Amino acid sequence: MDLATARQHIHASFERMRVLYQKPVFDEWVILSPAAKHGGVLAYSGPRIEEFRQKLPSDVEPLLHQLAGRNLDAGDFEFTSAGDGTRHDALVRLGAASYLVCNNLAKSMAEIRQDPRWLKAQVAFVELSERFRSDPLEV
Description:
Strand content: 15-25%
Shape: globular
CATH topology: Beta-Lactamase
Helix content: 40-55%
Number of helices: 5
Strand order of the largest sheet: 2-1-5-4-3
CATH architecture: 2-Layer Sandwich
Number of domains: 1
């Protein structure tokens, strides 16, 4: 899959999640490729474009800590309950060298999961991850 198609799938899935959850599940997301130029950021959607790059190392830390020692394949994902505020809540491996990192700036995953509508919304998230499992992002 190319980057433009990946962005379309992510946007459509997050919109579907918003409808099922009746409010945004994630209001910020980024596609990262550590080897890419511009600090590894391939795409960003969210309200804090100006400060995002500066805070990225500390904001992604809870997820990286949780993933330490694990090897993810395309389509694999992880959530962290330690992602409050600007710290990221979820990660999906999109391809050999790319990741989707998701965040809700107002709620942690623990708070999101307390709402029973999360059960329906997570179906859209899993379907998104399966898209990348069957057709990984190539950058």
